[in-house]
């Protein structure tokens, strides 16, 4: 895998991880998914687990890509930048996260329909 492509994938994984963590919070969910019903407790927990798993995947990608010395330093820097980026998106352009909220809603409704 090319160095640039692995770096872009790393950044996207971290951004998605923080986006899922942000949307698991009631305030952010209401901000992004205005007309959607609130998330259930189990859905919030699932989003948080997925978010933390993506952050851990980002760490493993960074360590694989650049080794333990520089990889951990790069992950620490990129995780801070990804958190700031998601915070800025939620502050100024929350509607940019609407497609992700739609996917979460669709999987939640698909999952609840499957259980019936």
Number of H- or I-type helical stretches: 4
**How would you spell out the order of helices and strands?**
HHHH
Shape: elongated
Describe the main β-sheet briefly: none
Which oligomeric form is depicted? single chain
For the terminal residues, how far apart are their CA atoms?
A: 43 Å
* Helical fraction: over 70%
C-alpha-based Rg, rounded: 15 Å
The tally of strands reads 0
Structural class: mainly alpha
Give the DSSP E fraction (strand runs of 2 or more residues). Answer: under 5%
Mean pLDDT: 92
* Unreliable runs: none
Describe it:
With 116 residues, this protein is mainly alpha-helical. Helix 1 packs across helix 3. The longest helix has 52 residues.
Can you tag this structure with a few keywords?
116 residues; mainly alpha; 4 helices; 84% helix; 0% strand
Compile the SSE list and pairings.
Elements: H1 3-23, H2 26-32, H3 41-92, H4 98-115
Produce a short descriptive summary.
The protein is mainly α and 116 residues long. Helices cover 84% and strands 0% of the residues. Helix 1 crosses helix 3.
């Amino acid at each position: 895998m090319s160095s640039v492509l692995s770096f872009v994938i790393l950044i996207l994984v971290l951004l998605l991880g923080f986006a899922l963590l942000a949307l698991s919070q009631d305030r952010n969910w209401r901000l992004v998914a205005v007309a959607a019903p609130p998330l259930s407790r189990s859905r919030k927990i699932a989003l948080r687990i997925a978010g933390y798993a993506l952050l851990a995947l980002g760490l493993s990608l960074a360590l694989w890509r650049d080794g333990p010395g520089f990889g951990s330093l790069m992950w620490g820097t990129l995780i801070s930048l990804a958190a700031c980026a998601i915070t800025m998106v939620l502050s100024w352009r929350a509607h940019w996260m609407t497609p992700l909220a739609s996917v979460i809603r669709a999987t939640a409704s698909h999952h609840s329909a499957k259980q019936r």
